[in-house]
Amino acid sequence: MYQATTSTIPKLGPESYCDSQYHDQDVTRLRSSAWHLIGTTGQLASTGDYIACHVLGVPIVVRRFDEQLVAFRNVCAHRHCQLIDEGMGNTAELKCRYHGWQYGSDGQTRRIPGAKNFPNFDRQRHRLEGFDVDTVGQLVFVRFAQCDQTLSEWLGEFEKPLQVATDAKDWKLNLFNRLTYEANWKIPVEASLESYHLDEVHAKTFGSDPGEEATLHQFNAKGTTFQTESRGKSLVERLEEASIRWLTGSFDPRYQHIHLFPNLMASLTETITLVYQIEPLSAQRCQMTVIGLGRSPSRPGRLKHLWAWGMRRMSARIAMKIFMEDATIFPLVQNGKRGAVDHGIFGRCEERLDAFHKYWAAPNGQ
Ligand code: FES
Ligand SMILES: [Fe+2]
């Protein structure tokens, strides 16, 4: 059941989806109020493995140094050459390709060619800027210095379900992508908070809105959740249930969706865990980092591993299809926001969006 008894007027007006002044405020708040999803521990398993990307306009590289995951600004301390190409890979050394400066896990220089050109060199001062890295399950996050919460504090009561749903012993990476949408970051966040658009946008993939009777919305200071046990009876859904029972010995029919304020979402089912975070690139453009994890069999057998591999491929393909369906709508919403003259309206079924607006419209996100 929904908790709202009336529709509401959204707190955030169209200007907060369009204007650069709101974008600047959003970026500042996102830097201080969230950890940022980079990738998985499996992608950074060996010494030298790295992921380089931009987070809220900041170039960041996360790299494994033996037992340690370390994050730096991806900019050389000498004359600011980008250290590592964006994407993933492995390098034997963390070394700048311009003049060959090499760095250690503390961000300080290890080797400077022609070091006598830098008499009395201050290694503390001329070093890479570091960022904190932490993990939950196999998810790797970084934070900026402005954020004073630990990852555990930020995740709050969502830490446990995220840990369970991304545990490397039960889940294998089947989807990793950074998608760009021509829309303000809040538009895809909001789309993930309601099932109202399913019939119109995802009828062939996601199925129908389960409806109020089968829906449970929950709210707390950290975010909101949606939960349903309603499942279709199609052949695919029955096969999915039978497969999970065969692979793991049990099947939980629940679908749970988590929104951790302000911008981290997770869809949790027995077949696939999707964790995704949406961050602004500009006032009217955003990027979604999405990590999909498919089920590993908890019972032995080669056939089970093969079947689970097939399920991981299939579920990742369906998930991408759903994301692509949404991607056709977001630019239309952005176009509409540019021409809108009022705040629109949230129905009762959109009460999670209302909670997000109240959080983001409040000066301190409280
Ligand atoms: S800019 Fe990196 S070594 Fe010179
Ligand atoms: Fe959608």
Major beta sheet summary:
7 strands, antiparallel
Work out the helix count.
Answer: 8
Query: Beta-strand percentage?
Result: 25-35%
CATH superfamily of the largest domain: Naphthalene 1,2-dioxygenase Alpha Subunit, Chain A, domain 1
Quaternary state of the chains: single chain
For the record, the CATH class of the largest domain is Alpha Beta
Summarize the helix and strand pattern as letters: HEEEEEEEEEEHHEHHEEHEEEEHH
Bound molecules: FE2/S2 (inorganic) cluster, fe (ii) ion
How would you explain this protein's 3D organization?
The protein has 2 domains: 1-33 and 157-366, Naphthalene 1,2-dioxygenase Alpha Subunit, Chain A, domain 1 (Alpha-Beta Complex); 35-146, Rieske Iron-sulfur Protein (3-layer Sandwich), CATH 2.102.10. It has 8 helices and 17 strands. It has helices at residues 20-33, 151-155, 159-165, 186-191, 198-201, 235-248, 302-339, 351-361; strands at 36-40, 49-55, 58-65, 68-73, 87-90, 94-95, 102-103, 109-111, 130-136, 139-143, 171-181, 216-220, 223-228, 255-260, 264-268, 272-282, 285-295. The strands form 3 sheets. A 7-stranded antiparallel sheet has the order 1-10-9-4-3-2-5. Strands 11-17-16-15-14-13-12 form a 7-stranded antiparallel sheet. It binds FE2/S2 (inorganic) cluster and fe (ii) ion (FE2). Fe (ii) ion binds at residues 191, 197, 201-202, 326. Residues 191, 197, 201-202, 326 line the site of fe (ii) ion (FE2).
Provide the descriptors you would attach to this structure in a database record.
366 residues, Naphthalene 1,2-dioxygenase Alpha Subunit, Chain A, domain 1, 27% helix, 7-stranded antiparallel β-sheet, single chain, 2 domains, Rieske Iron-sulfur Protein, binds fe (ii) ion, alpha+beta
